[in-house]
Amino acid sequence: MKLILLGAPGAGKGTVAKKLTELDGSVQISTGDILRSAVTAGTELGKQIESLMKSGDLVSDDLIMGIMEERLQQPDCEKGFLLDGFPRTIPQAEALKALLKRLNIKLDMAVNLSVDREVILDRLTTRRTCSNPECQAIYNVKSNPPKQEGICDKCGSPVIQREDETAEAISHRLETYNEKTAPLIGFYEKEGLLLTVDATSTDNVLAAIKQKLEG
Ligand code: ADP
Q1: Fewest CB within 10 angstroms: 2, 40, 81, 143, which?
Q2: Ligand 1 pocket member 123 (CB < 6 A)
């Protein structure tokens, strides 16, 4: 399957993407994970974007398109891909459309994960992430804590709160989402690719996607 996952921070794009990869071997491509790995590794790119990411601002469209153009041509994408956190702006969506046309790739749909603001705020403040850049597993102190407090079940690295998950950065990320990313819902509706689902429950989202792919 070739899907775009849309939704506010905390809507569950990453969680849904991970579950979907288990179905048919499609790869999850999270621009947030790619960028965080660059920051942790201290690469030139990482140094450029570190402060921007910490405050919850978006990195430039050109930079993201450079990363994605390369990523989408890697052989593991042939089986399918789940775009998590990309595109994030109308210019990115336009550029992706042109890129996919050039690569002769057809998207199945753009799934809009819809969740109430209170739920989002609660999820983001209680979210924890594995600090290992190769893993970045996601936990929640209330609903999905690691078996041993503060230690990742999958790789044993410390589980931490992301630097952009302070109350201030969270509210900034939600503003950025409303201003820059929410317009993509209209964009994909016009393209005839939109599926909006209630994302309060992950199982509900997975069922709706499966049904649409089969139907
Ligand atoms: P979330 O969806 O939980 O906000 P992500 O892990 O997707 O978090 O992204 C974290 C940060 O990475 C964003 O706040 C932004 O700075 C940067 N980022 C990720 N994807 C993009 C993108 N497509 N365009 C611009 N910036 C991005």
Answers
A1: 143
A2: no
